[in-house]
Design a protein that fits this description.
Ubiquitin-like (UB roll), globular, Rossmann fold, 18 helices, Alpha-Beta Plaits
Length: 590
């Protein structure tokens, strides 16, 4: 421990801690723009300047380590004037359309200018050249708003190992974007939206599809259904002032009805469907490998996350045979809505318009993939992020906090607690284990509260083993088998697990991969800024939702059973393969 003073306050800190982290621990806020907790501290923006006694110049708090006897001032005149000067220079080159920017009132840059008392542009003059990019279905870019903080570069290269973004050119001509100032659609971008999630301004955002949804709702010939992902219920409240981790499932359902959707459903329904399809696929592969001695692609990788799928297509085509053929719950829902449900309500599939609300920008890309057109045109017509749904509710003049709690509609609104935990890293794996273990043994999985603790939490790579004992006759070939599973989140960690598997250092049977840190609760379309503290609170809310349900295993869902009886005929059947499964192909990297 070292002792120092900050603003004349005696403070103790761990050796190696930064001034920024130490100040925050004692309740002193130092503004930042380029800093990202646990990821990036490069001192690039200079907004976090502080004065250290004896130093010739001001220091960037995010990269300056504490020292014994250090005296720090974070708010004297010299510091305030320097921060103002830095912000005024940044503002001089910033595209000033705040009134119409999608980040208005939700902009870190705007908030800092307000906190520093800046009311005028002190240095008007030439601005950097503007580049606009609307080439992808998921993301849009506007370089005129970029403040060169490099947060997007950090998450794209270090967290995701994709490297689609990088500073181009030098000096006044610097622009952050793909190599040679290409569009995102021209490079290996997985469209995960983590760049948009960490951007402090409106330089990178999700494509706004709200107008398309309003158009469908206003069309008397369209029957508009909406599905909501499990992660939405633990984050949507943040758009309306609720603290992170507040469950708003009931208010969300009420708001969607007041937006005039014809049916309010839950992606959780098809999350349960996914477990039956994917779990059966895993058990079928194991049977072929163990009993028939066939050379079957194992381990099986989950296929729920479109960012991970595109990453595999670009960077690891060798694992494509190992991917589950199951569509994601979003796409299964779209196919089910336009086949099973449209038949149930006597509507033609072309008249059923499916809107999906997701925590993810890559879902926008996934919806328009040519492989996802098995029902009628697109399985899912429009995808909105959590942030877009929040904007849409505001546009409709709905007082979200005053809404009563309402339930989802039947039949595609019923789900198990296992479906809820799809939102968290490790959730898909735990849901699958709950069902697979019970099918194999006839007993509930022997973990406390059915939670497989080793694969929960924010560790990047997690592993667990489940020994199969006391099997029912049909699954006796698995007696005594140790089923090894792994869970990873963040594509840099996906790289590591693929390398472990290729080198023979692991013996996994089933691997869950989620693109975004924390899983879907940390998705690129969630309310900003998602720190680890926010991730933890959302994750605990999701576990709470699961634990409060009487039905906590996917195979117990009676509505899913009915869907199989009336339409899909059974897991991995010809009918389910037609509408609920797909295939993936390698992509060429530019």
């Amino acid at each position: 421990m070292v002792k120092l003073t900050i603003n004349n306050m005696n403070v103790e800190a761990n050796e190696g801690d930064t001034v920024l982290a130490t100040a925050h621990k004692v309740g002193i806020k130092i503004p930042t723009l380029c800093y990202l907790e646990n990821v990036q501290a490069i001192g690039a923006c200079r907004v976090c300047l502080v004065e250290i006694a004896g130093a010739k110049a001001l220091s960037a708090a995010c990269v300056t380590p504490v020292a014994e006897g250090m005296k720090v001032e974070t708010n004297n005149k010299r510091v305030r004037d320097a921060r103002r000067a830095v912000m005024e220079l940044l503002l001089s080159d910033h595209g000033g359309d705040c009134q119409t920017c999608d980040r208005n009132a939700d902009c870190e840059f705007q908030g800092l200018a307000r906190e520093l008392g800046i009311r005028d542009i002190a240095f008007p003059g030439e601005k950097s050249k503007k580049y606009e990019d609307a080439s992808t279905p998921a993301l849009t870019r506007d370089s005129s708003k970029c403040v060169l903080c490099r947060r997007c570069v950090t998450v794209c290269t270090q967290v995701q190992n994709v490297g689609a973004l990088f500073p181009q050119n030098r000096g006044f001509k610097t622009v952050v974007g793909p190599a040679f100032c290409q569009n995102l659609d021209d490079v290996a971008c997985v469209q995960c939206g983590q760049c948009a999630a960490v951007c402090p301004v409106g330089a990178i955002s999700e494509r706004d599809d709200i107008a398309r949804v309003w158009e469908a709702i206003d069309d008397p010939n369209k029957f508009v259904v909406v599905e909501t992902a499990p992660a939405i219920r633990a984050a949507l409240g943040e758009c309306f002032g609720y603290p992170p981790g507040t469950l708003v499932t009931g208010k969300m359902a009420a708001a969607l009805r007041r937006l005039r959707f014809d049916a309010v459903f839950d992606t959780n329904f098809t999350a349960d469907l996914t477990i039956l399809e994917e779990g059966t696929e895993l058990l079928t592969r194991l049977k072929k490998a163990i009993v028939n001695k066939e050379k079957i692609p194992l381990p099986l990788f989950t296929s729920c996350c479109p960012g991970w799928i595109k990453f595999a297509e670009y960077f690891h085509p060798e694992v494509l045979p190992n991917l589950s053929t199951c569509k994601s719950p979003q796409q299964m829902f779209g196919a089910a809505a336009k086949t099973y449900y449209s038949k149930k309500i006597a509507k033609h599939p072309r008249d059923v318009f499916v809107v999906s609300v997701m925590p993810c920008t890559a879902k926008k890309f996934e919806a328009q993939r040519p492989e996802m057109h098995d029902s009628w045109n697109q399985d899912v017509d429009v995808v909105l992020t959590t942030r877009e749904l929040g904007h849409m509710i505001e546009q409709a003049g709905i007082d979200f906090k005053s809404l009563p709690d309402e339930k989802m509609d039947a039949p595609m609104g019923m789900s198990s607690g296992a479906a809820d935990i799809f939102a968290n890293t490790g959730g898909v794996m735990e849901a699958a284990l709950r069902t697979a273990y019970e099918i194999i043994t006839g007993r509930q999985i022997p973990f406390d509260g059915m939670h497989v603790r080793p694969i929960a939490g924010l560790t990047g790579i997690k592993q667990a083993s489940v020994k199969i004992t006391g099997t029912v006759p049909d699954w006796s070939f698995l007696e005594g088998v140790e089923v090894n599973v792994a869970v990873v989140h963040g594509l840099a960690n996906a790289n590591k697990i693929i390398e472990m598997n290729a080198s023979g250092k692991s013996n996994f049977h089933f691997i869950e991969v989620m693109t975004c840190p924390g899983g879907c609760i940390g998705g690129g379309g969630q309310p900003r800024l998602t720190t680890n503290d926010v991730r933890e609170k959302r994750m605990q809310a999701i576990f709470k939702e699961d634990e409060h349900k009487q039905m906590r295993k996917s195979h117990e869902n009676p509505e899913v059973k009915e869907a199989y009886e009336r339409f899909f005929t059974g897991p991995l059947s010809e009918q389910s393969h037609q509408f609920l499964h797909t295939h993936y192909t390698p992509r060429e990297r530019v």
